[in-house]
Amino acid sequence: MGNLQYYWTVFHVYLIGFMFAVLEFFRDFGRRPLNTGFIRRRLETGGANLPKRILVTGIDGNIGSELRRHLELLDFEIVVPEKADGSPVDLSSLAEVQEAVNVVAQRFSTIGYVICNAGVMLYPEVRTSDGIEYHKAVNAVSHIGLIHGLIAVGALAHQARILFVSSATARAGRLDNAFTMLTHYESGYQAYADSKLLLCVAAKEFAKIYPDHTFIAAHPGIVPGPLYRHTNLVFRFLINNVLVHFVRSPKVAAGQLLVMLFSASQLKNGAYYEDGEPVGILDRLDPEASENLFNKVINRCS
To answer: Tens digits of per-residue pLDDT, 165-224?
Structure first.
């Protein structure tokens, strides 16, 4: 049964990736380019007069570097989580995440926007020093702890907007047992999907607790790059050498995310989005189990 479940998960994840790559090709083919001028107009009409100060994780990645480029052209002050000595934060360590929260609170005025973009995929079985499975720690728990901490110290502006970069592979995620999910490792594919599902849960639960802020989770698109370095050799070659000419570019993905963030007042708080449309990805989950898992994460981060 274990092997059957593993192969089903692998098939499911690759099927999702293939389907979304095809859909996004046709959507992007006929779509007006999301240049910085268009994004600026969206900011001016939907920015809610928030401080032009944004915290971004994973800013050195494929999508992150394009986020930086747009944000610099938009004259944003970009805040990158770091330790007191200025070195990068290890998102697998809750202690370092809390240190970063304190540094942000001490060094910056209130933050208007947050994009939780950092992530890893298909790592081998590893537990962090906090005992959390690595994908869930880096992709989800660290970001939940970061947002929880920023709210607790008053570092977020009133009506701040927070975007969790999730993935369509969250459709393959499972929440079988809220009390073992954080530590359980079945495969890199399942762990990645579970971590992205947990980000969707986080957006929903945060929105319930802090309705004055806006929380959304979003699929950025199937974007080639280093994230896929641990995938199947054939798939890695295809997406980075062949499909790269057809799938969504980091530039388009970053533009889509920023348009959503700056349009958040028009969006459903706590929802998960794909190409600007809300998707009921959490409808299949037990609401009580989702809430229990979220509360468990918050307790681990406190």
So the answer is: 999 999 999 987 777 889 999 999 999 999 999 999 999 999 999 999 999 999 999 887
- Whether 222 contacts 24, CB under 8 Å: yes
- pLDDT tens for 15-70 read 998 899 889 988 888 776 678 888 888 888 876 689 999 999 999 999 999 999 99
Looking at domain 2-301, which CATH architecture does it have?
A: 3-Layer(aba) Sandwich (3.40)
Nearest-angstrom CA–CA distance, 189 and 16: 12
Task: Give CB contacts under 8 A, 24+ apart, made by 27-33.
Answer: 27/275, 28/248, 28/252, 33/252
Query: Alpha helix locations (H) across the chain?
Result: 2-29, 36-46, 62-73, 94-107, 134-135, 142-152, 188-209, 233-237, 250-262, 287-301
Q: Contact 194/174 with Cβ under 8 angstroms?
A: yes
Query: Using an 8 Å Cβ cutoff, are 247 and 228 in contact?
Result: no
Interatomic CA distance for residues 139 and 166, integer angstroms? 9
Read off φ and ψ for residue 207, nearest 5 degrees: -65, -35
Q: Where are the domains of the chain?
A: 2-301
